[in-house]
Each structure stands twice: as C-alpha cells, then as structure tokens.
Amino acid sequence: MAFADEFPVQSLMYITNRPELVFTEGKGSWLTDQHGKRYLDFVQGWAVNCLGHSNPGMIEALTKQAHKIINPSPAFYNEPMIALAKLLTDHSGFDKVFFANSGAEANEGAIKLARKWGRKHKDGAYEIITMDHSFHGRTLATMSASGKAGWDTIFAPQVPGFPKAELNDLASVEALINDKTVGIMLEPVQGEGGVIPATREFMQGLRALADKHKLLFIVDEVQTGCGRCGTLFAHELSGVQPDIMTLGKGIGGGVPLSALMCTAAVASFEAGDQGGTYNGNPLMTAVGCSVIEQLTAPGFLQSVQDKGAYLREQLLALSGEFGLGGERGEGLLRALVLNRDIGPQLVEEARELQPQGLLLNAPRPNLLRFMPALNVEREEIDLMIGMLRGLLKKLA
Ligand SMILES: *Cc1c(COP(=O)(O)O)cnc(C)c1O
C-alpha cells in the first residue's frame, strides 16, 4: 500500500520534508517504525529525551499523576509544581522558577523578565545583546533574538532590541553596550549553530562585563542544561553564576515542559505580568521531578562525563582514520567536523541502513551532531561508530 493511502499525512500542515516513516515504539536508545525496523537513535528528539525512550521512572510519574489530577488550573498551587521548583533551586544557584511548555516560551519569559527588571532598576533599559548564529526559538521575539541567517527578514518586521555580537569575542560584546542595554544572552554551547562551545574565558568575561555595567547575564540552557554537558547545567563548567537561566528539552525528558529561572534579586514580575494556561501543569512537572531526580542520582552525571569522553575518543579516531576536521562539544552534545558537505547524505544513508537504521543529525552540511540519551550504553556508542565508519568508507 502506498504510504499516503495508509497514513493520510496530507491533512498535516506542511512545515518540513519528512521521510515516509511513522515511529510506533521506543525503548532506551532504540526506535521502531511502522514496518518493525529498528533504529539506533542518536538524535533523541533533538537532545530532548535525556533518559531515552519510554523511561520507566517517567512512565510511572506520568501515570501516577494522571490518576491523581491532571489540571487544577494555574491559578492554584499543585504538588509536583512545588516539588520540581524546589528540586531545581536546590540543585542550582537560582532562587525562583516559572514553568512553561517550550524553550521558546521560557526564553520569551526571560526577555520579558529582563525588560521588566530594566524598567524597575535601570532606567527603562531593554536591549539584550545576543550572539550571531545563536538559536533561541521560533516565536517572533526569540527569532529576533536568534542570530540565524535569514531570520531577520523572513517574518519582518522583527521585534527590536537584540543587537548581535560574536561568540567568544568579548570586545564585540563590549562595543554594543550602551544606556539602553539591559542584558547579555547566549547558549553556553551553540547547539543549532553547530555545537560551538563558548570558552570558559568568554563566559567569565561576560559575567565580569555584566557586573561592571549592571547588566543581566542570561543563559539559554534549553539544549545544554539538564545533564547534557556532563554537569547539571553547562554554565557550571565555567564556574559562573548567571542571573537568569532557561531550560527546555531535557527537563521534560520528552514531554512539553520548560522553565525560566532567576536569582531573587532579579525576580521582578508583578501580578499579571507573566502566566500561561499550562504553567506548572502537574502532569508535566511530575515527569520533570522524575527526570531531575534521575539526573542527580549519585554517579549519574559522572557517567555522562565518562560516556562523553568515550564518544569524543571514538569520534577523534574516526576523524583521524578518514582525514576529517576533528570533533568538538561538551559532555554528550558533540559534533564531528566532516571534510566535505556530506552531512545530509550521511544522515539519509544512516537512516536507510539495513537491517537496523541509525538516526543522526547534520545541523550544518559539513557537520554531524550527536545527542544520544544520557544513559546510552557504551556498546551502543560502539555500534553507532561502527555503522558510521561503514558509511564513511563507502563515501570515501
Ligand atoms: C531548541 C531550542 C530552543 C527552542 O525550544 P522549543 O522547545 O523548540 O521552543 C531554544 N533555545 C535553544 C538553545 C534550543 O536548542
């Protein structure tokens, strides 16, 4: 039967090209499609499923909570919302949490919070310096904050107030600071931009600049947070304490959950400034509690660091073997630099491998990005490397 006859996908609004696959089951690092073919998943919903597919702890939290209460209304407290906020503040240098549903929404909240703080404490300053090639989401304000090529015109006019600096170039940031500047916002590792880490010195330099000019230091940890980089939050790698942090992706382990966090000094929303129908939804925050408890269990983050180091070694070996451009990243957010623009072709051929496929991602034509589950097995890393080696040989 033709794919479109079996699955009437034409009713879905077109937004991107998708292969004719319908995934029906997932377990750990493996997905199964409509034909029963299995795929080793090194994308995990774009670094979302930090505990792999169908994690037992998450399933238990979700089903237990579903039987208790799904939605009392965001106008009231609920137990999982309180518990997750406490977990997050206990395990970070932040004091306050607002929950939302997506990374973009958390970043919108961060932008609003910074503008509110600027109104109250900095003479109406509102500009937030962001980085070229950054990615902060797909709402109008977060697209304007992003430094993605073409995004300044695609849905023009932009939301004003986001001058762009160069990542890892402190002077380029300092040159943009003026009376209207309220903050600096960046990803500790640019994910969509091609897995480009901010250096430790740059992060520390930004903290110092923010202190000197009374600016808010905002980190978008939607992709880098929640254990992805081997520490619970990636800014810990530089030993800096930001004023505002956003979380998404991994915090829900696959369910729609995100968070905006800040220090007590910055929490300046007044009644009615911020909200949202599903904020603090108990079904999602219950899952978030399970995720954070598993990530902070003794030894877990160390195992992410160990597996990250192992993946790095294996990627470097591949790079040496095929004369590629090396690898980069932090923890289990890594990229292999190819020597030609064969990323998209590799992604497709990896998916079509038989009898088992491999899911990879190419954020740039000459780059492969690896975002496995944080509990991926070493044998699964070996298997992925073996499959990739075969493909690189074939294309060499
Ligand atoms: C994915 C991502 C976002 C957007 O998150 P959504 O949940 O898709 O809105 C924002 N910032 C970064 C760094 C991301 O990786």
UniProtKB/TrEMBL annotation:
Cofactor: pyridoxal 5'-phosphate
Pfam family, one: Aminotran_3
Positions that bind pyridoxal 5'-phosphate: G103, A104, F135, D220, E221, V222, Q223, T277
Stretch forming the signal peptide: none
Recorded catalytic activity of this chain's protein: N(2)-acetyl-L-ornithine + 2-oxoglutarate = N-acetyl-L-glutamate 5-semialdehyde + L-glutamate
Cofactor note as given: Binds 1 pyridoxal phosphate per subunit.
Presence of keyword Glycosyltransferase: no
Metabolic or biological pathway: Amino-acid biosynthesis; L-arginine biosynthesis; N(2)-acetyl-L-ornithine from L-glutamate: step 4/4
Localization: Cytoplasm
Positions that bind N(2)-acetyl-L-ornithine: R138
Top enzyme category: transferase
Enzyme Commission code(s) on record: 2.6.1.11
N6-(pyridoxal phosphate)lysine: residues bearing it: K249
Amino-acid biosynthesis in keyword set: yes
Keywords of this entry: Amino-acid biosynthesis, Aminotransferase, Arginine biosynthesis, Cytoplasm, Pyridoxal phosphate, Transferase
Subunit structure: Homodimer.
Miscellaneous note of the record: May also have succinyldiaminopimelate aminotransferase activity, thus carrying out the corresponding step in lysine biosynthesis.
Family: Belongs to the class-III pyridoxal-phosphate-dependent aminotransferase family. ArgD subfamily.
Protein's recorded name: Acetylornithine aminotransferase
